[in-house]
Design goal:
alpha+beta, two-stranded antiparallel ribbon, 6 helices, 48% helix
Length: 124
């Protein structure tokens, strides 16, 4: 078992990432269980003043008061932890990370995935 303290943004990012999960029945079932653990209940939504709006193209967007965001401890099985880590790594390996993935990147740091910048000497 692994315990991670995750912000609302990190939990939303995990759910968004797992929406694209592909695999067999066991993998998909595990994905649903992880998503259930990332749920932001009504009390939390009110506490952070969460609102849903729509972009000009009709895409739903969540907004909340980051200053009121308190991390929540989430308990994950080793397999669930591994699933999240693999999905982040796959996205990175495919060069599909974007600037908007800042919450996934902060989560990768918490999962000790080595997201630090390389020093100039190491790049040469």
């Amino acid at each position: 078992m692994k315990n991670l303290k995750l912000s609302i943004g990190e939990r939303v990012a995990v759910n968004n990432m797992l929406n694209d999960l592909k695999g067999g029945l066991q993998t998909i079932n595990m994905g649903f269980k992880v998503m259930d653990k990332m749920t932001i209940d009504e009390k939390e939504q009110k506490a952070v003043e969460m609102k849903q709006s729509f972009s000009r193209t009709g895409v739903p967007q969540l907004a909340w008061n980051i200053k009121k965001d308190k991390e929540k401890e989430i308990e994950l099985s080793d397999d669930q932890f591994k699933l999240i880590k693999e999905q982040i790594q796959n996205k990175s390996d495919k060069n599909e990370m974007e600037m908007s993935d800042r919450y996934l990147i902060s989560l990768a740091g918490k999962m000790e995935m080595g997201v630090e910048e390389k020093k100039e000497e190491e790049k040469k």
